[in-house]
Design goal:
By secondary structure, the chain is an all-alpha fold. It has 16 helices and 2 strands. A two-stranded antiparallel ribbon has the order 1-2. Helix 3 (about 55-65) packs antiparallel against helix 16 (about 315-325), helix 6 runs antiparallel to helix 7 (about 135-160) and helix 7 (about 135-160) packs antiparallel against helix 8 (about 165-190).
């Protein structure tokens, strides 16, 4: 983690430390499975780390709209349970080795138990959404679940496609990442009883932040190491996932270099040396810098969505989180 990223992260944690502790406690107390095995599997993914970004955003977005109650922290667990469910399912689909620095759940507990625990977490999220007594929150969770599923199906269908366009990539990351962060921010405003324009502004902020967050995440697969990333470096490439850094580089590459890069994408059995050469070519053809530029534009747009809110500590915090999304290293 570079000094700028570490400094921003430290600032955020100093501000939200107590809130994160309350959210962590709520995640444990509201899990309530009937079977110890379900608790163990859910805990394997839920309590192995993670930034708690989504529940934190819901809580802050409620607070910036004037609602600061312990109940909001319980409601915020909706989005961490939903996120954890998608990780369980994604790791199964991808046959992942690691998640958050630990063996992926299906490798510890088996495929069947992992996928069914993911289903339990989805249901738990919906149950707590119903407790908000806001039909709009339930609609948001239902829509988010639909979009997440379709985004994963799109990504699965696109595997190995060397002709994937930036527009297609943007559609996938909106569905598989941005909708969940957007939904958390929007739901925070709804449970606070915010005015329509405030709810739409926070929804806008969440969507832009989610897009930036996923682009930064896709960069980490080529700029981080396994320890920092918490999963195998180069996993996207081995799984045939063309993310924005690759798409930009392929478009700009010479015919010779493009042909070599396409061979690596299609073979999926590349060596560590091949991987480093691939990253060098992405650097050469602007894939890394171009992705950072795209992410920076979404961060700027996210902050612009907040312009209608008066200055406050919560507004400053949301802006700081957007800045961190761009600079984080894990």
């Amino acid at each position: 983690m570079n000094s700028q990223s570490a400094s921003i992260k430290e600032q955020i944690l100093n501000i939200v430390g107590n809130d994160l502790a309350d959210i962590e406690a709520a995640l444990r107390s509201n899990l309530t499975p009937h079977l110890d095995l379900v608790r163990e599997v859910a805990g394997h993914i839920l309590f192995a780390g993670g930034k708690r970004l989504r529940p934190l955003l819901m809580f802050i977005c409620a607070r910036i709209c004037g609602s600061d109650t312990p109940q909001n922290k319980r409601f915020s667990t909706i989005f961490e349970y939903l996120h954890a469910a998608t990780l369980l399912h994604d790791d199964l689909v991808d046959d992942a080795l690691l998640r958050r620095g630990k063996p992926a759940a299906q490798r510890v507990f088996g495929n069947e138990t992992a996928v069914l625990t993911g289903d339990f977490l989805l249901a738990r999220a919906l149950s707590i959404a119903a407790d908000t007594q806001h039909i709009e929150v339930i609609r948001i969770i239902a829509d988010v679940t639909e979009q997440l599923s379709q985004g994963e199906i799109q990504q699965l269908h696109n595997r190995g496609r060397i002709d994937l366009t930036e527009a297609e990539y943007m559609e996938v990351i909106h569905r598989k990442t941005a909708v969940l962060i957007e939904g958390a921010c929007h739901s925070g405003a709804i449970v606070a009883g915010a005015a329509g324009h405030e709810a739409m502004a926070l929804k806008c902020y969440g969507q832009r932040l989610g897009m930036a967050f996923q682009m930064a995440d896709d960069l980490l697969d080529y700029t981080s190491d396994t320890t920092g990333l918490g999963k195998s470096v180069g996993a996207d490439l081995r799984e045939g996932k063309l993310t924005l850094p690759v798409i930009i580089a392929l478009k700009a590459a010479s015919r010779k270099d493009r042909r070599w890069m396409e061979g690596i994408i299609q073979e999926k059995t590349f060596t560590e040396t091949d991987f480093h050469q691939f990253v060098d070519l992405m650097e050469k053809y602007g894939g890394i810098a171009g992705t950072r530029d795209h992410a920076a534009k979404y961060v700027s747009d996210a902050k612009s969505c907040l312009e209608g809110f008066p200055p406050s500590s919560d507004k400053a915090l949301l802006e700081l989180i957007a800045t961190y999304a761009l600079h984080r290293k894990a």
